[in-house]
What we know:
With about 160 residues, the protein is of the alpha+beta class. It has one domain (about 25-155): Pleckstrin-homology domain (PH domain)/Phosphotyrosine-binding domain (PTB) (PH-domain like), CATH 2.30.29.30. Helix content is about 20%, strand content about 30%. The chain is built from three helices and eight strands. An eight-stranded mixed sheet has the order 4-3-2-1-7-6-5-8. The protein is globular, with a radius of gyration of 16 Å.
Amino acid sequence: MPNEEPSTKLPRSPHAPKIGPDExxxxxxxxxxxxxxxxxxxxxxxxxTRLLFVPxxxxxxxxxxxxxxxxxxxRAVERWPLSPGQLPRGGKRPRLxxxxxxxxxxxxxxxxxxxxxxIQLAFYKRSKENPGSGRPEFRRTxxxxxxxxxxxxxxxx
Length: 157
């Protein structure tokens, strides 16, 4: 079954390292992470090398950990529901799925499509700087990243 979805169960791992002085933060906003039965509140950071989720102090006391997803490990980025015009089933909030080889991370940022666009642009920039680096699959319909459309049009001319 090659198209089997990764597990939503978080891997058992120690706290991810804090943001270092050499990391460039591209975006940081409040977000929830809803893997498993316990929702965690905190901040989602996109740096030039990884996504980092930092739980609130209260969630940390309740056992939540800092989680990191290296950009090199990301296989797919998906908006759920796929189109902004669709209503999610069951009255749920739209979600951002980040898939690695083993885990599907589920985030609920306030600006979901803004996050999707920025992650897509970060991978575009990485592929320009290092042509051998891989790009994940981006799954979304009904909306196109205007910056990438402009760049693609300029490159084809």
